[in-house]
Design goal:
Blueprint (H helix, E strand, L loop, with lengths): L1 H8 L2 H23 L3 E2 L3 E3 L2 E3 L4 E6 L4 E2 L3 E8 L7 E10 L5 E12 L3 E5 L5 E10 L4 E2 L7 E6 L4 E3 L4 E8 L4 E10 L2 E6 L9 E3 L7 E6 L4 E9 L3 E8 L14 H5 L7 H4 L17 H9 L1
Parallel strand pairs: 1-11, 5-12
Antiparallel strand pairs: 2-3, 4-6, 6-9, 7-8, 7-10, 10-12, 13-20, 14-19, 15-18, 15-20, 16-17, 16-19
């Protein structure tokens, strides 16, 4: 009886099935180990060179200052570029134990869409969202400032810890009348504003004791990114209104330049964490398994 079982396990059908299973495992492990994504360079095949897709424009919603987490991401490819897949990633600032950029959410590789609904993470302050795209040959784009955008989200009753700052970025054109109102509900938060290309002390400050209203008004003197910060003199809770909402601006003029990043010695938080995920070195292309080849072997 034992001999019969041994003979049965060696039948051609069983041997072929085991061999196929082993081959599939080896193929999958090979692609996982070798990192089969081809990033931002041309590849040459039977039909000639395949250029990487390029993102020409990427925006979050239609303005920079948001009071809702629900947004629409819009991706425009450069002329001549094609994409079948996209990967979206969101970053936010985490305050503890030390301020740093952290991944708030990722979409994984999903079918490419020019407009994609997206829910920002439930945290007030600055959010960056970026997109990578891949074409049918799985050649992927690189993250650039044209495929990265920011949004400044304000949720009701925002907490800020003692000595912490919560930044907001808004892009304005020249000649815009801006009004900022910070309403404390507990503690003692203050309000600061930096104009574009100012690397030193804040241009505007509102610092009243306790629960007094903090309010600033100004007219923009140049186009660029204006930095607003709520600072907790002590642990506080506040609401913030910035009008108009500004943006969106997808080129980020001057933002992320090494000279600008290095000059943030007087601007809280950015000198510690970097001005954005690209400058902080956190924009590495996510891996993409070559699923088309693997599935082809399975079907055969």
């Amino acid at each position: 009886m034992s001999k019969d079982k041994t003979d049965l396990s060696r039948t051609p059908r069983r041997t072929r099935a085991m061999t196929l299973a082993l081959m599939l495992c080896l193929v999958l492990l090979t692609f996982m180990a070798s990192g089969p994504v081809v990033q931002a360079r041309a590849i040459t095949g039977a039909e000639g060179a395949v250029e990487p897709p390029v993102v020409a424009k990427f925006t979050i919603d239609t303005k920079d200052f948001l009071t809702s987490q629900e947004t629409i991401l819009r991706t425009t490819l450069a002329e001549g570029s094609e994409a079948t897949l996209m990967y979206v990633r969101e970053w936010q600032i985490v305050q503890q134990p030390n301020p740093h950029w952290d991944v708030a959410a990722s979409s994984g590789w999903v079918p490419f869409a020019e407009e994609l609904p997206w829910t920002l993470s439930a945290q007030s302050g600055l959010h960056f969202v970026g997109v990578w795209v891949a074409n049918a040959e799985h050649v992927t784009s690189l993250m650039t400032f044209k495929s990265l955008d920011f949004a400044s989200l304000q949720l009701k009753d925002t907490p800020v810890g003692k000595d912490e700052v919560i930044p907001y970025l808004i892009y304005y054109e020249t000649g815009v009348d801006v009004k900022v109102t910070l309403t404390p509900t507990s503690g003692n938060p203050d309000l600061y504003v930096w104009y574009p290309y100012n690397y030193e002390d804040a241009d505007q400050t509102s610092s009243h004791p306790g629960l007094e209203l903090e309010e600033l008004t100004f007219t923009t003197t140049q186009a660029g990114i204006y930095v607003f910060m709520a600072h907790g003199i002590e642990a506080s809770v506040y609401d913030l209104v910035i009008s108009p909402e500004g943006g969106p601006n997808f080129i980020l003029p001057g933002w992320g330049e090494p000279t600008r990043a290095a000059a943030f010695d007087q601007m809280p938080i950015f000198t510690e964490i970097g001005t954005d995920p690209i400058t902080a070195g956190l924009a590495e292309t996510p891996p993409l398994l070559w699923r088309k080849m693997f599935l082809s072997i399975v079907r055969n």
